[in-house]
Amino acid sequence: KQGLEKIRQGLAESADLxxxxxLSQTIIATSRCGLGHTSPKPxxxxxxxxxxxxxxxxxxxxxxxxxxxxxxxxxxxxRHIARRRSQIYDPDYSQSEGS
Length: 99
Prior knowledge:
Elements: H1 2-8, H2 14-30, H3 34-38, H4 41-49, H5 51-57, H6 71-82, H7 93-97
């Protein structure tokens, strides 16, 4: 979902499309159930049928850096998984630790 949301918001680059394509192929090839074999197909089919739509949503970075990388969003998922806050990336970390 995160990859498709990044594309939908116009924050993805062409490498993101390729990563999702490869991930889809891996899911199809390694899945042990029917759901895994079919779940990536809507993305793969829409990518094949509507390449211009995907192309219009892409960011094109001249610097080579990821256009849509958001450190707070990336750390947010880690916070949730680890059930801990980030001392480096949470601006109010030191204030809340004393409470």
